[in-house]
Amino acid sequence: RSCVFLDCGHICSCYPCYQALPSPKKCPMCRNDIARVVPLYNS
C-alpha cells in the first residue's frame, strides 16, 4: 500500500496495481473515480 487515491482518500493499493486497474480507473474499495494518486511514504 504505497499510494492514496483522491478524492476518496482510500489507501488500498500499491502504484503498480493502480496502473493495472482498467480504465476508467476506479477505487477498488468504493468504486469512485480516481481523480489523483498521491505517493504514501511511511517512516
Automatic annotation (TrEMBL):
It comes from the Eukaryota. Keywords: Metal-binding, Zinc, Zinc-finger. GO terms for molecular function: zinc ion binding. Pfam families: zf-C3HC4_3. This is RING-type domain-containing protein. It comes from Xenopus tropicalis (Western clawed frog).
